[in-house]
Amino acid sequence: MSVALPPAQGPETIDTVAIAQAGLKEGPGGFWRDVFRRLRRNPTAWIGAAIVLVFILVAILAPLLAPYPETALPGAKNITPTHIPGPGELPEFPLGLDRFGGDVLSKLIWGAQASLLVGVVSTTLGLIGGMLLGLLAGTFGGWVDTIIMRFVDIILSVPNLLLAVSIAAILGQTPFAVMIAIGASSVPIFARLLRASMLQQRSSDYVLSAQTLGLGRGRITMSHVLPNAIGPVIVQGTLTLATAVIDAAALSFLGLGGGRPETAEWGRMLTYAQNELAIAPQLAFLPGICIAVTALGFTLFGEALREAMDPRTRAR
User: Fold this and answer.
1) Distance CA 8, CA 24 (A)
2) Cα–Cα distance for residue pair 109/264, rounded to 1 Å
3) Which DSSP category does 77 fall into?
4) pLDDT digits over 234-259, tens only?
5) 3-class secondary structure per residue, 12-70
6) Which CATH superfamily is domain 29-72+85-314 in?
7) Per DSSP, what are the bridge partners of residue 80?
8) Global pTM?
9) For burial by CB atoms within 10 Å, which of 20, 182, 208, 243 has the most?
10) Helix (H) / strand (E) containing 170
């Protein structure tokens, strides 16, 4: 009598089963499909996404939306020492003029482009640097982990804005220096977050199964541990964009952003609005509102994304 034997399970089959049993493989796009479903049901995500989308569209389409070029001063002849035309006073300038004679509406639109560029580039630099350090610490552990984490602790001991100001002051007053400064100040956040997430994943059953099958540490890390540990880092990247916009405005406000005085940048607009608060307070309120609303949009969407990716709430 012949006995039917179960099909042979090679390393690849067993490895896939282990991952599936751990709940880390929910079918093609299962995890992200569930995340998008939860985001669609969250009104906070809709509000944040709408604000972010408007901000991005305004920044990208600035050359088409702005009535005047970035450094143009079309209303210089209308400026007097005691009066700066405000919103509605001149038909051709809906939001009025600044102290240099520039169109405020145009500068707000061009300022969105500058803030988006600084925010995206600085966050990308911080993300790359932080992920590299976190990946090394989470993969090798031991003395490598100790050295990297002590270096990260030293950076974390300095307040973010103070560290960014110091780096920008050393590198010079240029927009690129601001990007590097803000990116460097966010490196420790991404490094610690990815390391902690990888250490949590390394103790999972599917990692033990892969090790039992003889898979190398590099393959386990890059194929399984890193993809499952990167979710919190993506969420943090969204939240870091909000702080990057604020930090960029702060550094420009302190005069570290470089450029000419009439440069269209929200933080620089705040700097030169201080002397006109008594006669033209809108020059400070309008860029301030743009900064606050933009940061709010990224924060709302980032928090909604964090909730949607949280395994403790996904089962609800």
Assistant:
1) 23
2) 8
3) G
4) 888 888 998 898 888 888 888 787 66
5) HHHHHHHHHHCCCCCCCCHHHHHHHHHHHCCHHHHHHHHHHHHHHHHHHCHHHHCCCCC
6) MetI-like (1.10.3720.10)
7) 83
8) 0.79
9) 182
10) helix 160-171
